[in-house]
C-alpha cells in the first residue's frame, strides 16, 4: 500500500518533535472532503474529557491540503501543451451542436477526431523521447520515460482500434495490430540478430531458431529470409531441400498493404496457403526424431499455415504474451479479421494467456483489445488521470460511452474522468486557466466547480497589507481581464462580478482606490463602492488633507461615468461626488486658492452634497477661511448658512442625535467623545461671530 506524505507549511509540529505534541495533550485529526481530493487537518485533544491546556501556539489553525502531488515543471509543460489539443476538440464538438445530429458520424467529423487523436499520440511520443534522453535536468522527472512509453503504447492502440482512418473501419485489422506491436514492443532485438549474423554457422547457436521464428511471426521477412538462406549451407540435405521450398513462400507471403482490393488479397492468400499445405505434406515425408531441426521448422510452417494452437504455444515458449498471439492471429490465422470480431479472438487467447494483473499497462491494453471501454478507463485512471480523461473525452462522441447523466452524481461517465483530472490540476493554482478549460466542459457540476476555481484565483502572489507597497494594479488587471473574458465566454456573469468584488477589496487594502472604484462599478457592487469611498474618506481622518487629496484624485476620473450610468444607485454616486469635490476643495486650499476653496466648501454644505456626519468637519475647515485676513471670503448670507448648519448640529446633539452628526469629528480627536467634539465646534461658533463683526465693520 502506497503512503502519501503531505507537508504542511508552517508545520503543525516540527519534524522529530511529535512527542511534544503528545505531551501537550493533542493529536492531529484529518477530515476528507466528500467532493474532491482535499482534506482539512487540525489539532484535537488526545483526551476530550480531561486534557490539559495546550501549549501549542497553532492549535486553532486549520490546514486545507490536497492529496495530489503538485505537477513538476516538465509535467506542467506536458499538461499545457496537450490542453491545446483538448481545446481544439471541444471547439469541434461545440461546432457540431449547430449541425445535424448525425454530423459526428460523417467522414469530415471522423477525420477531425482522428487527426486530433493522432496529435495526442505524436505529442506523447515526443515526451517519451525527451524523458529518455540522458541529460541533466533542473529537477528529477516526476514521471519516468517508462511511464510516457506506456502512455504512448496505450493511446496508440486506442487510435488503431477505435479511431481508424475514415472508410477503413471495416477493413482487416491484423496489419495495423502487428505494426503497433512492432513499434511498441520490439522483438527480436537488433543486437541478437547482429550477433547471429556474425557467426559462420548461426544454426548452431541456441537462439537461432527462436530468432528466426519470432522474425517470421513479426513479419520481418528480410531477417527471416536472411537466416533461411544460411540454412542452405546446413549439413542436412533434407533440411536444405525443405528450405528451398520455404524461402519462396516466405518471400511471397501476401500482405494486405500490397493490394488495392481486399478481394484480390483474399484470393492470393488462399493460393499461398495451398502452397504452404503442400510444404507440410512434403515435410511429413522427412519425419525423423533424430533431426534437431524438425520440430522448430515444423512450428515455423505451422505458423505459416495459420494454426492458432501452434502460434499460442510457440509464443509462450518464446516468452511472448497474449498481445503477440492476437497480432499474429490477424496475419496468419484469420487474415480478414475485423475490429468488431477481435474481442472474440482475444477472449479465447486470454483464457490460456491472461494479462498481468500487476501491470496496469497490460490491463489497459487487454481491455482495449477486448473492447471494454469502461475497464480501459478504470485502469487508465489508476495509471494516469491525464490518460483516462482524454480517452473518455474522445470515447463519448464516438459512441463508446453512455452520454446520459448519472442519476446520483449528475455527470456523465466522460465527465466523471475529466472532473477527476481537473481535480488533480487544482493541486497547482498556477494552472487555473487549464483547470477551468476542463471543468467548463463538464456540464452543470463542472461549471459550479469552475466558478469556485475562478473565485479563488490568486489575483496577486503577494497581496499587500494595509500600509504596505500597493499590489501592481497592472498585474491584477491582467488576471481579472483574463477571468472576465472566460466568464463572458461561458456566460458566468455572476462569477465575473464576484471576482471584481474580490479585486476591489484587495485594492482597497493596498490603497489603490482608483482601480477599486473601477472594479466595484464593473461588478455593479454599489455597497462595495460605498466601502471604497469610505476608505478614501478615512484617509482624511487618519492621515490628513494632503494624503486624502492625493488618493481622492485617483477616483475622480470615475465620477462622470458613475453619475451618467442609469445602473448606479444615486446614494453612492452622491457620496462619490462629495469625496471628489471635497478633495478638490482641499487641493485648492493647499494651493492657496482660498476664494475658490471657500466657495466649494460652502457649495458642499448649501447643496447638501456633504453627508451630515461630515458637516462638523467642513465647519472646522471653514475656520481657516473665516479667519482669512486679506479679504472677506464669505458673504453675509454665506456665513448665515454656516451658522444654520452649526445650530442644527448643536440642537440635534442636545436632543440625543449626536451620532448622526459627530461620529467623524470624534474620530479626529484622539481619546475624545461627544463632549470634546462639541467643544471643538465652539471654536467654529467663535470664528463665525468674529466674521459677523468683520462684516459689520466693513459695512460701516
| Total of helices | 32
User: Based on helices, strands and strand pairing, what is the structural class?
Assistant: mainly alpha
Report strand %: under 5%
- Regions with little confidence, pLDDT below 50 for 5+ residues: 50-59, 463-469
**Biggest sheet record:** 3 strands, antiparallel
What number is the mean pLDDT? 89
Total beta-strand segments: 3
Question: Between the first and last Cα atoms, what is the distance in angstroms?
Answer: 103 Å
Function: Functions as a component of the nuclear pore complex (NPC).
Subcellular location: Nucleus, Nuclear pore complex
Protein name: Nuclear pore complex protein Nup85
Keywords: Membrane, mRNA transport, Nuclear pore complex, Nucleus, Protein transport, Translocation, Transport
Amino acid at each position: 500500500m502506497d503512503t502519501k506524505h503531505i507537508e504542511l507549511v508552517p508545520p503543525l509540529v516540527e519534524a522529530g518533535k511529535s512527542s511534544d505534541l503528545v505531551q501537550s495533550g493533542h493529536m492531529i485529526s484529518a477530515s476528507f472532503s466528500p467532493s474532491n481530493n482535499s482534506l482539512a487537518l487540525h489539532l484535537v485533544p488526545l483526551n476530550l474529557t480531561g486534557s490539559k491546556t495546550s501549549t501549542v501556539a497553532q492549535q486553532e489553525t486549520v490546514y486545507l491540503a490536497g492529496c495530489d502531488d503538485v505537477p513538476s515543471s516538465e509535467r506542467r509543460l506536458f499538461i499545457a501543451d496537450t490542453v491545446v489539443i483538448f481545446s481544439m476538440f471541444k471547439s469541434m464538438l461545440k461546432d457540431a451542436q449547430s449541425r445535424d445530429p448525425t454530423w459526428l458520424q460523417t467522414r469530415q467529423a471522423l477525420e477531425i477526431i482522428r487527426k486530433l487523436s493522432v496529435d495526442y499520440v505524436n505529442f506523447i511520443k515526443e515526451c517519451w523521447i525527451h524523458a529518455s534522453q540522458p541529460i541533466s535536468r533542473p529537477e528529477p522527472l516526476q514521471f519516468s520515460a517508462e511511464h510516457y512509453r506506456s502512455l504512448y503504447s496505450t493511446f496508440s492502440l486506442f487510435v488503431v482500434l477505435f479511431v481508424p482512418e475514415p472508410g477503413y473501419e471495416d477493413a482487416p485489422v491484423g496489419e495495423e495490430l502487428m505494426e503497433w506491436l512492432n513499434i511498441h514492443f520490439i522483438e527480436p532485438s537488433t543486437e541478437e540478430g547482429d550477433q547471429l549474423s556474425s557467426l559462420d554457422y548461426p544454426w548452431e547457436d541456441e537462439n537461432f531458431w527462436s530468432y528466426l521464428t519470432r522474425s517470421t511471426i513479426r513479419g520481418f521477412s528480410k531477417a527471416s529470409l536472411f537466416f533461411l538462406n544460411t540454412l542452405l549451407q546446413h549439413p542436412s540435405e533434407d533440411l536444405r531441400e525443405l528450405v528451398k521450398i520455404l524461402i519462396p513462400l516466405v518471400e511471397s507471403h501476401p500482405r494486405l498493404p500490397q493490394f488495392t482490393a481486399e478481394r484480390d488479397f483474399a484470393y492470393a492468400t488462399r493460393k499461398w496457403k495451398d502452397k504452404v499445405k503442400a510444404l507440410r505434406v512434403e515435410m511429413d515425408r522427412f519425419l525423423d526424431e533424430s533431426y534437431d531441426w524438425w520440430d522448430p521448422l515444423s512450428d515455423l510452417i505451422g505458423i505459416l499455415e495459420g494454426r492458432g494452437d501452434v502460434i499460442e504455444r510457440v509464443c509462450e515458449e518464446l516468452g511472448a504474451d497474449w498481445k503477440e498471439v492476437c497480432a499474429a492471429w490477424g496475419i496468419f490465422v484469420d487474415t480478414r479479421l475485423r475490429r468488431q470480431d477481435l474481442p472474440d479472438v482475444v477472449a479465447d487467447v486470454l483464457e490460456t494467456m491472461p494479462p498481468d494483473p500487476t501491470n496496469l499497462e497490460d490491463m489497459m491494453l487487454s481491455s482495449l483489445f477486448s473492447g471494454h471501454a469502461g475497464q480501459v478507463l478504470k485502469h487508465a485512471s489508476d495509471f494516469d488521470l491525464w490518460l483516462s480523461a482524454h480517452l473518455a473525452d474522445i470515447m463519448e462522441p464516438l459512441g463508446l460511452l453512455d452520454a446520459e447523466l448519472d442519476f446520483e452524481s449528475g455527470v456523465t461517465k466522460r465527465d466523471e474522468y475529466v472532473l477527476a483530472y481537473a481535480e488533480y490540476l487544482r493541486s497547482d493554482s498556477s494552472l487555473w486557466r487549464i483547470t477551468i478549460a476542463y471543468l467548463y466542459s463538464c456540464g452543470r457540476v463542472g461549471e459550479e466547480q469552475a466558478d469556485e476555481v475562478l473565485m479563488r484565483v490568486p489575483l496577486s502572489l503577494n497581496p499587500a497589507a494595509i500600509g504596505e507597497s500597493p499590489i501592481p494594479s497592472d498585474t491584477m488587471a491582467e488576471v481579472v481581464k483574463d477571468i472576465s473574458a472566460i466568464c463572458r465566454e461561458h456566460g458566468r456573469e455572476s462569477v465575473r462580478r464576484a471576482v471584481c468584488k474580490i479585486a476591489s477589496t484587495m485594492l482597497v487594502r493596498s490603497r489603490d482606490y482608483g482601480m477599486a472604484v473601477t472594479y466595484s462599478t464593473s461588478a455593479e457592487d454599489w455597497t462595495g463602492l460605498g466601502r471604497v469611498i469610505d476608505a478614501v474618506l478615512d484617509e482624511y481622518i487618519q492621515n490628513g488633507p494632503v494624503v486624502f487629496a492625493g488618493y481622492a484624485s485617483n477616483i475622480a476620473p470615475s465620477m462622470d461615468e458613475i453619475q451618467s450610468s442609469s445602473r448606479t444607485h444615486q446614494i453612492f454616486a452622491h457620496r462619490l461626488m462629495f469625496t471628489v469635490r471635497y478633495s478638490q476643495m482641499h487641493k485648492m486650499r493647499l494651493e492657496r486658492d482660498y476664494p475658490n476653496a471657500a466657495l466649494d466648501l460652502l457649495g458642499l454644505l448649501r447643496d447638501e452634497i456633504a453627508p451630515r456626519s461630515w458637516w462638523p468637519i467642513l465647519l472646522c475647515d471653514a475656520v481657516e477661511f473665516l479667519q482669512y485676513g486679506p479679504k472677506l471670503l464669505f458673504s453675509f448670507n454665506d456665513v448665515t448658512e454656516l451658522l444654520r448648519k452649526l445650530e442644527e448640529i448643536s440642537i440635534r446633539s442636545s436632543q440625543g442625535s449626536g451620532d448622526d452628526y459627530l461620529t467623524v469629528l470624534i474620530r479626529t480627536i484622539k481619546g475624545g467623545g461627544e463632549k470634546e467634539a462639541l467643544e471643538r465646534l465652539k471654536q467654529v461658533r467663535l470664528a463665525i461671530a468674529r466674521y459677523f463683526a468683520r462684516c459689520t465693520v466693513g459695512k460701516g
